[in-house]
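FW: tagging you since you asked about this chain on Friday. Here's the raw sequence from the shared folder, copied in full. Didn't touch anything.
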Amino acid sequence: MGSSSLQGVASLAFSPTHSRLSRTRRPNVCCLPLKARSDQSPFQIEGELHFNSKVEKLLDCIKWDDKGLAVAIAQNVNTGAILMQGFANRDALATTLSSRKATFYSRSRSSLWTKGETSMNFINVLDVFIDCDHDSIIYLGKPEGPTCHTGEETCYFTSALDLMQPSKDEANRLASTTLYSLESTIYERKDNLGANPNEKPSWTKRLLQDEKLLCSKIREEADELCRTLEDREESSRTASEMADVLYHAMVLLAVKGIKMEDVLEVLRARFSQSGVEEKKARQLNH
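HL: got it, structure written out here
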């Protein structure tokens, strides 16, 4: 099955017009014949059969290992953070596609389990990706709470490089991208405001404590960013000015208690809406 075929299956699997497969049909979930219910129309039954057929084709293209498993990784759709890694078999992937909840196969219990079925910290899956060799899977979704049983946002918070330096602080450090490492640093500065009153405050702390200074810097940096276009400056200059805008804007978000993930959630919600319609809706709401 080619990549275009896989994309077609994914689009079908996540179409809201297709009915959810029953969680009670776990054994060979995609192979069992569907029985008509009194509340189902012939069109609904045909839709479910079509959905099952597409899922079967997808499952057949996965290179399952000798135990019928493949690595399944859950990733935060907004932050890019790797949330956890488990294993999936045919039934686990089929259940994930139908329920949109990240579902794995427990090797110790020899059974399916859905992340959050005990803690209620589900991972709501928006898409599923298969790697180029078709032997590993990514569940791309939005977590409803901490993913790790320790209460951490992800299961990856132990740096191997930190472990090799015993003298270094052994505090947990989430595996974060550049953007979220910056956000974490800003929030650390915010949490430590006033901790050392005799210490000269960092630039970030000054901004956090002075709203007028912060807003003036955002306006200043935004103007300088625009000037790189108007004055035909080099691309490196534009990137530098954009970094300044982003940093200062993230400090403002921290002052307001807003995370970048909240911003990206808004952006993602706008993907299926035209810019003109979105702008009109905002004007009506105001």
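FW: The CA atoms of residues 186 and 251 lie 7 Å apart.
HL: agreed, and The chain has two domains: 3-143, 176-285.
FW: great, closing this out.
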